[in-house]
Structures are given as structure tokens and as C-alpha cells.
């Protein structure tokens, strides 16, 4: 996409700035960090300057992963007569279920909230709000004097998850250099896995302490503080600033200068004179057709956004209904049946799988901007198909070959982290058009959490009705359908700016 395209109207409400260096921009702030400059004809940036705009939003993903890991240990501690440190430790299965799934249902609420408040708050302030809710939710849960207060804390923490998982990929996508956008957004999945490992580690260390569950939940407090302070310090997304100014037609020239300053902070001195050119290109794109008008609710289900919703929503739906929560649910049973007696301990099993997830996500991060999104999805999901049918075979007629089940389990986890895990979040963060990105992505995040909750809830009834082998075969068939969906529907976005994705793909 080029702002000089003759079919696009040229912007007349601001003068084009050329020939100015970084130091000559009025009141320009110092870049966040200055080092490791990389020269690129379109999008120069400093490596170190690009790190912090990724790290602080990604802490929202780390807290999400930490909640998954720590909750497993916390529920064991809570139900111990000797170690819980409370009088209400004798919890029913429903009460334990509310503690475990409370954050998931809170995340659903957060995703719904994001639909209405995301564009008003902006990506940065939404992440600040998320960090505040993480902090309050963790404190309420850790200090809970009774069960109802604990559930309220879990829901509050979950709302923070919903907001963070909505705003973080948007902020990273809109501020990251094009060349490493895929790598950075995929690394958010790496932070989720790191959070899970941290949660398992903290749980195993504090499981023997009286009231250890309080410390497990409280560990989220300092992380949420770091996230909040970091997001307060970072600049807003230049794209969001320009979108708001064009939609409201308010001080566009002043907002343009602010956007240039923000972009200089995000990229460092390496961006040089191209900051103004990049901002002008975004403004030119917003001025084209109706892209500068304020979005209505119904537009999410029309035109470009509907196509983006089919791509992103379909991808995260298949991400969950191919059985990801259920396969991990069976991990301990599979490893125990294979004779790994030490691995029968839930914590050790979780750490083993967590390490594999971490390694495979790292591989995806390293190659996503070189190989592209589609090759990783097609290759990874093909491996998922094979692993699910191997598991179905094991539970149907090969129950005397437990090693096969272990191989299938490890293959599933590895391939998921190479494909659906990081690429799902990457695609939904970059596929939606700018003016509808906040609302469109909130629907995709809602689909993700809702389908996760549905699969988790429906697994046991379906297992009883169909049998484990048949159920895994059903997941395998769904995975084949997802492979067809990826091949025919999912586009390749490698190397394209967000504006080029909107113009060429949608």
C-alpha cells in the first residue's frame, strides 16, 4: 500500500514532513532504548527499543499462564485439612470447580466488556485497567476469608485475563516493526507457557506450607504491578491515536505530531526520517473511503470485518474444538499407563509437558517470520490429526501399546505449540481492519474462551456417551476439517504491514 496511490485521496489537512531528523522533531521524546539498530528500507527500528513495547503487554499473558499453573497446586492446598490454614477446606466438587473455572468465566465477561470499552480506552489504557484488575483479583483471592469472597476474586482476575488477552496482541501488533511482528506476537504465547511453568514451580515449592495457596495466588501481585507501571510508561499505539483523531476530526495535525513522537519512542533513533512517512501512510489509509468513520456494532458483521472474523474466529474456534483442553486432561493417565511412575505425579507431568510446550513455541517464534503463518499451521495441524487418531486407536484397540499413547500425546502438544498455539493469537491480532480491530478482536477472544469452556464442560458427558476412543476420533475428524479450513481460507500475512493486509487480503 502506498499513500501516493492515485486512487486514494491525498490528505490536505496536514503538511508532509520530509527532511527532518529524529532530533529536529519538536518536543520529541527520547527513545525507550537505543541500540542494535537494524536498517530496513521500509521500517527501520532498534532491537532494544522494540523489546519493552512487547514485554509489558506480554506480562498479561504470563499472568494468564501463571493462573493455569498455580491453580492446580492451590486447589490441592485448599482442600488439605492440615495445610489449608482455614476452617472451610471441606469443599464440594462444585465449589472446587468454581475456584478452578472462575477465572475462565471471568475472562468471558472481560471479552464481552472489551467489545464496548476497547476503542474508547485504547490498547494502552485497557492494559493498565487489566493490570489493576489482576492486582485486585490476586489480592482478594489470596486474602479471602471465606469461599464467596474467593470466587469474587477469581472472577475479577478472570476479567483481567479477558481484557489482557484482547488488548495485548493488538498493542504488540500495532507497535511492532513489520519484520518481527509475527515473532513478537508469537512470543506472547511463549510468555503464557512461561507463566504456566512458573505457576507449577511456585505450586510445588509452596504446597507443603500452611496456607500455601494464599502465597500461590499472591505471587501474581508483583507481576501485575510491573505490568501496570510499564504500560503507564509506554506510549499509546500511534495507529489508535490517528484513528481516534480522524474519526472525531479533532486536531489531526497535533495528533499526527504526537503519533510521530510515539513512533520514535517505539523504534528508537534508527527510524530516522521515516517516522513521519509511516504516520502519513496510516493517515492516508484512514482517509480512504469510509475507514475514518466511527464504526457501528453491525459493521463488525459486514464487509472486510466479516471476512476477518471468519478467518480469525474460525481459527481460534478450531484451536479449541480439536480437543486441546481434553488431551491435556488425559496427560497424567497416559504417562502413568506407560509406566512412568514418577510422572504420575500431576506436578511432574505438568512440568514435563510445560517444557515441551516451551521448546516448541520457541521454535515457532524463531521461524514464523521466515516460513510464514500458513506452513506452520498446515504442518502443525497435520501432526495434530495424526496424534488424535493415534490416541483414538490406543483407547479403542491398541491398549497394550502405551508407548504409542505417549508418543501421540507428545506429538499433539508439540504440534499444537508449533501451530494453533502461537499462530491463532497472531492471526487475530493482525487480520482485522484498524477501525474495527478492537471490536472484531474482542469477538474472536470471546469465541476462544467460550469454546474452551464448552469443550472443558462437555468432555466428561461426551466421554461417558461415546467412549474415550470414539471421542478422540471425533476430535481427529474436526482436526481434518480445520486443516481444510486453513488450506482454503487462511491467508499468508508474512512481511505485510497491517495496512497492506487490510488492502490486499480483506
Descriptive terms for the model:
20 helices; two-stranded antiparallel ribbon; Growth Hormone, Chain: A; globular; 506 residues; transport; transmembrane transporter activity; MFS_sugar_transport-like
Question: How would you portray this structure in words?
Answer:
The chain crosses the membrane at residues 45-66, 86-115, 127-145, 151-169, 190-209, 215-234, 349-368, 375-397, 403-428, 440-459, 465-490. Its main location: membrane. Residues 53-494 form the Major facilitator superfamily (MFS) profile domain. With 506 residues, the chain is mainly alpha-helical. The protein folds into 2 domains: 44-234, MFS general substrate transporter like domains (Growth Hormone, Chain: A, Up-down Bundle); 297-505, Up-down Bundle (Growth Hormone, Chain: A), CATH 1.20.1250.20. 73% of the residues lie in helices and 1% in strands. The chain contains 20 helices and 2 strands. Strands 1-2 form a two-stranded antiparallel sheet. Helix 1 runs antiparallel to helix 7 (220-233), helix 4 (147-175) crosses helix 18 and helix 14 (346-371) crosses helix 16 (402-418). The radius of gyration is 23 Å and the shape is globular.
Summarize the structure.
By secondary structure, this protein is mainly alpha-helical.
Give the spatial strand order of the biggest sheet: 1-2
> Structurally, how many domains make up the residues?
2
| Poorly predicted residue ranges | 1-31, 33-41
Overall mean pLDDT: 83
Helix vs. strand class:
mainly alpha
Largest sheet: 2 strands, antiparallel
- CATH 2nd-level architecture of the largest domain: Up-down Bundle
Query: What top-tier CATH class of the largest domain fits best?
Result: Mainly Alpha
Shape call: globular
Strand content: under 5%
Helix content: over 70%
Measured between the Cα atoms of the first and last residue, the distance is 13 Å
